[in-house]
Design goal:
258 residues, 8-stranded antiparallel β-sheet, 3-stranded antiparallel β-sheet, 3 helices
Length: 258
């Protein structure tokens, strides 16, 4: 693809002959190709023409293949899809005019590119989120029949990948919604709890004030009782002392009269 590093090829072709029957072996091809970015290919071919019809088999295995960009419709959909890291397995068998070929491409790190600028509307944002979750696509193709009347079958995992991506997106949206609802409930509970704590504090303060007043009244009453008790004790003591002194005086008078 355009913009990718050029591949350097190396290989050998053995058994090249104008008469394979005389040579006694099929022609063999073994080649490798790689570039500076890590893309590498191994190509093996066997060309058997000692019998009729001849049979040619070519197998190619590519790893870390940069598939380049594929232009898409654009608009609200992606403009391009890029796959800088793909695995390619290909096998082609020709026997006379009969063809039996298979191709499998595992595209990794798939990137869908949209038009510049933010998405327009909620559906466009969801669509971008959905495409962003598709990072791997597998493509399979088989070719049968003959060269003049081939039958081609193509399948891909794109439906499965989008179904998985949609499930992941819905699960994330559900998790986010649950988180928002939980946060709202917790906020309301905290607000109610704060209001309840405030009322409890006010009631506690009122009760403590009443208890303090009662304690102050009790202490004042106790102080008053103590004063009255002291006054009564002092009065009783004074009365007792007065009577005692009067009796002493009377006794002295009686004694001295005699």
């Amino acid at each position: 693809p355009a913009g990718t590093e050029a591949l350097g090829f190396a290989g050998q072709l053995t058994g090249l002959s104008s008469d394979a029957v005389v040579y006694g072996k099929p022609m063999q091809l073994l080649a490798t190709a790689k570039n500076a970015t890590g893309e590498n290919w191994v190509i093996h071919g066997t060309f058997e023409h000692r019998t009729s019809p001849g049979e040619d088999v070519v197998e190619a295995v590519g790893r870390r293949v940069n598939l380049g960009g594929i232009k898409l419709s654009g608009g609200s959909m992606p403009e391009r899809v890029n796959s800088p890291d793909a695995s390619v397995d290909m096998r082609v068998k020709l026997q006379g005019f009969a063809v039996d070929a298979g191709l499998q491409i595992d595209a990794n790190r798939v990137q869908f590119a949209f038009a510049p600028g933010p998405p327009k509307g909620g559906s466009a944002r969801i669509l971008r989120d959905l495409f962003a979750r598709v990072q791997r696509v597998q493509l399979r193709a088989t070719v049968g029949g003959t060269l003049t009347h081939p039958s081609i079958r193509v399948s891909s995992s794109i439906d499965e990948e989008f179904s998985r991506a949609l499930k992941d997106l819905l699960a994330q949206r559900r998790k986010e919604a649950e988180g928002q609802i939980r946060a709202q409930i917790e906020g309301q509970v905290q607000a109610r709890q704060a209001e309840l704590n405030k009322r409890l504090d006010e009631q506690r303060a009122a009760i403590e004030a009443k208890v303090a007043k009662v304690e102050a009244d009790v202490k004042a009453y106790q102080d008053q009782l103590e004063r009255k008790q002291k006054e009564a004790e002092a009065s009783a003591k004074s009365a007792v002392q007065g009577k005692a002194e009067s009796k002493v005086q009377d006794l002295k008078k009686r004694l001295f009269k005699r």
